[in-house]
Structures are given as structure tokens and as C-alpha cells.
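Justification of resources, computational component.

The compute hours requested in this renewal are based largely on the per-chain cost of generating structure records like the one below. Each record pairs the submitted sequence with a full C-alpha cell output. That output is archived, and it is also reused by downstream analysis tasks.
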Amino acid sequence: MLRSLASESILPTGSRSYSAPASHTATTSLSGGSDKNRYFVSLGYLDNKGLLRVDGYSRYTLSSKLDITASDRVKTRAVAGYVYAAH
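The structure output for this chain reads:
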């Protein structure tokens, strides 16, 4: 199959324009608080290399959550997230 693709000029022969795909992932999070207040923050990174040099995908993520208990009847939650992706 690879030979037929190379003969159709999809994968150039004689040059190393492709490589074995690799993937890297990293995440970290922080959480804590007290009886009345809780927080959570998470950061993530994903980098997928494609088979061809022009392939690939990178993504950065940020998510956060804040819980506040003002009283037995009043509770508030704030949630926010952000994603940046590039091909």
C-alpha cells in the first residue's frame, strides 16, 4: 500500500517527509478550599504529530471551578473554560 501511495506522489520518495506519529500529553490541576469555599483549576496540553509533516494537532486547555456557600440557602458556582487548538 505504501509503495502505491509513493508512486502517486502522495508520499515523496527520496526525501524524509514523513515520520512515525508521536503524541505528548500533560495535565496538572490544583484544588482546595474550606467548608464554605472550594476551588479547582486544571491546565492541559496535547500535541499529536501526524504521519506527514504537514499533519498534526495541538491543544491547550484551561478549566476552573469555584463553589461558594454563603449560607444554607445560598450557594453559588462559577465555571469557566478555555481551549486553544491548532492544526
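The longest strand covers residues 56-69. Residues 1-9 have pLDDT under 50 and may be disordered.
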